[in-house]
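Dear colleagues,

As part of the handover before I leave the project, I'm documenting each prediction I ran so the next person doesn't have to rerun anything. This entry is a single chain, and its sequence is reproduced below.
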Amino acid sequence: MSDQMPDSAPQFLTVGEGEAAREIAMLVRPAQAGNGAPALVWLSGYRSDMSGTKAVELDGLAAELGLACIRLDYSGHGLSGGSFGDGTISRWLEEALAVIRHVAPERVILVGSSMGGWIALRLAQELARQGGVTLAGPKLEGMVLIAPAPDFTSELIEPNLKAKERKSLAERGYFEERSQYSPEPNIYTRALIEDGRKNRVLDGIIETGCPVHILQGMKDTDVPHAHAMKLVEHLPADDVVLTFVRDGDHRLSRPGDIALLLSAVKGIIRSSTNRQMPA
C-alpha cells in the first residue's frame, strides 16, 4: 500500500532467563489517538518472519485504518536472537505471549499464517486459561488463519517420516528436508516434534470464544485442505468461516490472495465493533 508509513526501527524484548534468554525483535505500530479498535497481531509461519508480504500488507491495513499492529520474529527467525535449532512450539508461544503482554493492548485480533495459526490457537487457550489473573493479557476479538498448520509435527510430519529421516532423528536429533521456498533445507528437530505432541490442539474441542476466518488454498502441497476442514470440526462452539481458494498454494501471497486476507481481517474488525456497541 503506497500510503503506509515506513517501518519504525524494531524494538527488542528479552524473553527467558539465564541460558534460555533471547532477544525477540518486534515492530509495533501504535494506534491513532482515540482509536479503540483491537490491535492486529501478526504470527508468522515456520522459517518466515515479520517482513514477509502478508505481514507488511497487514501492517499497511493497520496504517490505513489507524489501528495498532504488532509483529514479531520468533527466536532463530528474522532479526531475533537465539538459535533456530532450539525452537519449539512452546518456546515460540512463550515469545508471542511475552510480546503481547509487553505491548499490552486491551483487545487483539490474531492473524496467523501456517505454523502461526497453531501459535494463534495455543495463544487463545493460554489467554483463556489465565483469564481473571493479573497477567491475563488482552481480550481476544477474532482470528484470521491462513493455511493454518496446527499439530503439523504430529499430523503432517511424523506419519510421513522415511526410514532415513527416523534414523537421522534418532542419531543426530534432527533431519533435513529440501525447501521449495529457500536454498537452505528445512530442519526439523526431535525437540520440536516431541514438544509438538505437548501442544496438540486437534485432540479435543478448541474454544477460542471469538469468530474465526480460515483461508485455505486447495493446491496447497504443504498443508492439505483437508487439514483445514479437520480444524473446523474442532471449533464447534465458534463462529467459523472457511474460505477455499481453488487455485491457491500454501503461501497465498498473490494480489488476489492478499485482498482476501485484508477483507477477512476487516470483517473480523466489523464484527468486533458491532459486539462493542450497546444493544
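Confidence is low (pLDDT under 50) at residues 1-6. The radius of gyration is 18 Å.

All the best with the project,
I.
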